[in-house]
Amino acid sequence: xxxxxxxxxxxxxxxxxxxxxxxxxxxxxxxxxxxxxxxxxxxxxxxxxxxxxxxxxxxxxxxxxxxxxxxxxxxxxxxxxxxxxxxxxxxxxxxxxxxxxxxxxxxxxxxxxxxxxxxxxxxxxxxxxxxxxxxxxxxxxxxxxxxxxxxxxxxxxxxxxxxxxxxxxxxxxxxxxxxxxxxxxxxxxxxxxxxxxxxxxxxxxxxxxxxxxxxxxxxxxxxxxxxxxxxxxxxxxxxxxxxxxxxxxxxxxxxxxxxxxxxxxxxxxxxxxxxxxxxxxxxxxxxxxxxxxxxxxxxxxxxxxxxxxxxxxxxxxxxxxxxxxxxxxxxxxxxxxxxxxxxxxxxxxxxxxxxxxxxxxxxxxxxxxxxxxxxxxxxxxxxxxxxxxxxxxxxxx
Length: 397
Known about the structure:
This protein is mainly β and 397 residues long.
């Protein structure tokens, strides 16, 4: 039984149809009428007097066709305006000033003054009488005895009042002050303000401040978005080794960049020498894991690491695919890996956006490298020449 869709035209729309012939007519009002549905517009039957006034909806062009005056007329709504871009986040706050330096040490002690001269010795006095004191029995004083005779008594005096406190001596000269400590360096300015929820699930590339979602699947942590670092090292025949689809920066923002295998592996050794000199037509030794073009602490996944990821997803291509794309109707994105149908750069042209995704691995030799391929219903490894441009996902060390 053929599918039908409810659709209709107002009197105004019908007049526009009869007046415009084969031109696309803007539908202004809809009433409920049955309509036949076909998969492709090229399968329309002949418009004749037998089916004058018939309406048919074609799925591939998302348009309705109306048989008027023995000609099919297409009706399709206009595309809405694009929304305005969101506002930039606020700048981060400045870092705190460094702490003040410590106080300098006290100056050294001054030299000791010279000793005064000794006074002259006085004349020797006459020999005196030997005297002694003896405490009185009631302890009220002392009896003075000289030459065995008592010459007097000295009584204990009444305790006198406490004398005034003497003047404070002058303070010695202050030592020279030590040099002040150096002032701490000013803190670095905070990162550009971006409101990011779930900071533990993001990666900020320190090279260009781009932010990527990350996801842990099994015992691996992966980038959940395609790399978009502008690696622009030239090759022997090209002025760059990475591109945006159709050379449009807006496509890089959504789908990331395409890289030659030599660029993905950082053959120019900009960030590491893990794959220095490796590329199309060369023989080299690749260290593992190989950082390649990935941010610090991340690396280009090997063939085995891709297979480990696929096994953790029950080997389902649909679990890898992001939802919302017409050519991937069965996508589930069950683990949040969110592969986009970014297409590829192949034989100097851009192809396949909306239908396929292709990712480099670090496994390669001579002029061929393994790449992970995903389309609507399959996902697998293939060996491909290194001079094509594919997407990059990085995995954490």
